[in-house]
């Protein structure tokens, strides 16, 4: 996350929380961020120095007015006006961090060899929620290289209980064993 993203994302979050629109705005900026990732040319156009700022802001206004909350539209126009349109994803990341912290949400990424079933995901979510005391937002990424088991990444921690990790531990133990 960039410094610009951190400052602007927090400012938008503080406004949204004050107006009790934090959840709605999170949904809108997340959807916009996904759209911008699929069509990066729009953000590139908003950041282009070849167009005057007024035209870029007018473009954002005409494209997004009526489809997003006015605070979100104004936020994008401010980023465009200040030359930070390309920092939108970083702003969304900062906003999400503040939202998650205030709402007791912990994003967790589970890496497995095969996709988790609904039952497995539910059981893992409940277990982690009991351990952390937070609402778990679980995402599953498949990596056939882990062979089996699960590797969890959350809150700056990594808990690796994959078969590949266990085999590495055994390999290191045997390497360091003196006979």
Overview of the molecule:
This protein is α+β, with helices and mostly antiparallel strands and 179 residues long. The protein folds into two domains: 3-100, Orthogonal Bundle (Peroxidase, domain 1); 104-175, 3-Layer(aba) Sandwich (Glutaredoxin), CATH 3.40.30. It has eight helices and four strands, in the order ααααααβαβββα. The protein has helices spanning 3-18, 22-38, 40-47, 53-64, 70-82, 88-102, 118-132, 163-175; strands at residues 105-112, 135-142, 149-154, 157-162. It has a four-stranded mixed sheet. The longest helix has 17 residues, at 22-38. The protein starts with a helix and ends with a helix. The mean pLDDT is 91.
Short description:
By secondary structure, this protein is of the alpha+beta class. The protein is built from 8 helices and 4 strands.
């Amino acid at each position: 996350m960039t410094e610009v993203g951190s400052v602007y994302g927090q400012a938008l979050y503080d406004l949204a929380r004050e107006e009790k629109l934090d959840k709605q705005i999170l949904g809108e900026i997340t959807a916009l961020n996904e759209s911008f990732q699929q069509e990066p040319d729009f953000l590139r156009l908003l950041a282009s120095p070849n167009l005057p700022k007024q035209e870029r802001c007018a473009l954002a206004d005409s494209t997004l007015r009526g489809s997003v909350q006015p605070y979100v539209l104004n936020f994008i126009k401010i980023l465009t006006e200040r030359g930070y349109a390309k920092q939108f994803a970083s702003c969304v990341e900062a906003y999400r961090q503040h939202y998650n912290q205030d709402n007791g949400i912990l994003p967790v990424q589970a890496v497995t060899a095969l996709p988790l079933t609904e039952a497995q995901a539910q059981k893992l979510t409940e277990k982690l929620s009991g351990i952390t005391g937070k609402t778990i937002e679980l995402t599953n990424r498949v990596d056939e290289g882990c062979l089996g088991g699960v590797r969890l990444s959350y809150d700056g921690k990594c808990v690796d209980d994959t078969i590949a990790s266990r085999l590495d531990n055994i390999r290191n133990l045997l390497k360091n064993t003196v006979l």
